[in-house]
């Protein structure tokens, strides 16, 4: 693949729902199969042809992420962005946008545990419907009421979002893993009011988002229950 791209791993959250695990460990460093969660993201991305840079934003217990990255075999690919005060996911992307001049940018919440082929995801973006500017990973959730649910048309274009529905509904959930085209990045740059990607930015792209479904494994480990399930799922397994 000759196309160049950058990646942004969002890793600044406090992970308050995972206390006491996150009392001394940043959420992105929570271990799965004995390794920090963020390592699975770095390793997946580092294998991709065309990767230019991995940006990682930090804030809570940032020094622990810094130390880990300093000793990582892919450290020359990584640039850390410390946020003394959290900018919000949209704010982080907007601040970084001037450095993102490639055809597209891969974006993921680094507190997700996700098993998939990044090259397949990228290919889906390259093959997306003509008017779409973003490709979103979707997954089948255990509990739809805890997720942002996505409604798509017959060709996979997102037509509506239902944020944490009161009643369980069938369908796909937003996996918070995206590919933003350069055009989409420029639009976000102009959204000076936007704080959160999911609630502020994505609704402005309805009809311009292509959904790619992860049929292998995807889980937000943001709660004690979900983390326990992930540990069980990957007991004695490599991510």
Give an account of the 3D structure:
25% of the residues lie in helices and 29% in strands. With 239 residues, it is of the alpha/beta class. The protein is built from 7 helices and 13 strands. The radius of gyration is 17 Å and the shape is globular. The two termini are 24 Å apart. The longest helix has 10 residues. The strands form 3 sheets. Strands 1, 4, 5, 6, 8, 9, 10, 11 and 12 form a 9-stranded mixed sheet that branches. The protein has a two-stranded antiparallel sheet with strand order 2-3. The chain has a single domain, classed as Spore Coat Polysaccharide Biosynthesis Protein SpsA, Chain A, CATH 3.90.550.
Question: Summary?
Answer:
The chain has 239 residues and is α/β, with parallel strands linked by helices. The protein contains seven helices and 13 strands. A hairpin with a 5-residue loop joins strand 9 (148-152) and strand 10.
Q: Architecture in CATH?
A: Alpha-Beta Complex
Rg of Cα set: 17 Å
Quote the distance from N terminus to C terminus. Answer: 24 Å
Oligomer: single chain
β-strand amount: 25-35%
Indicate the overall shape. Answer: globular
Structural class category: alpha/beta
Q: Can you count the beta strands?
A: 13
Q: Percent helix among the residues?
A: 10-25%
Question: Count of helical segments?
Answer: 7
Poorly predicted runs: none
Number of domains: 1
CATH class descriptor:
Alpha Beta
Order of helices and strands: EEEHEHEHEEHEEEEHHEEH
Instruction: Say what the CATH topology is.
Output: Spore Coat Polysaccharide Biosynthesis Protein SpsA, Chain A
Summarize the biggest pleated sheet: 9 strands, mixed
Mean pLDDT: 92
- CATH homologous superfamily (4th level) name: Spore Coat Polysaccharide Biosynthesis Protein SpsA, Chain A
């Amino acid at each position: 693949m000759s196309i160049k791209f950058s990646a942004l791993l969002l890793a600044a959250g406090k992970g308050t729902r995972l206390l006491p695990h996150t009392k001394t460990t940043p959420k992105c460093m929570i271990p799965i199969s004995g390794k920090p969660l963020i390592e699975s993201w770095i390793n997946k991305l580092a294998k991709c042809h065309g990767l230019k840079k991995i940006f990682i934003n930090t804030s809570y217990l940032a020094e622990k992420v810094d130390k880990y990255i300093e000793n990582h075999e892919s450290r020359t690919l990584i640039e850390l962005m410390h946020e003394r005060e959290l900018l919000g996911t949209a704010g982080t992307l907007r601040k970084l946008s001037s450095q993102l001049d490639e055809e597209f940018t891969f974006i993921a919440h680094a507190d997700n545990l996700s098993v998939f082929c990044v090259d397949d995801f990228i290919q889906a973006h390259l093959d997306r419907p003509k008017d779409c500017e973003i490709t979103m990973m979707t997954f089948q959730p255990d509990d739809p009421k805890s997720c942002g649910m996505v409604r798509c048309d017959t060709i996979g274009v997102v037509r509506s979002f239902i944020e944490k529905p009161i009643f369980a509904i069938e369908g796909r959930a937003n996996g918070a893993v995206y590919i933003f085209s350069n055009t989409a990045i420029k639009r976000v740059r102009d959204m000076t009011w936007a704080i959160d990607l999911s609630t502020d930015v994505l609704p402005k792209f309805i009809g311009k988002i292509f959904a790619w479904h992860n049929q292998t494994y995807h889980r937000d480990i943001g709660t004690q229950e979900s983390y326990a399930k992930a540990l069980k799922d990957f007991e004695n397994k490599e991510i």
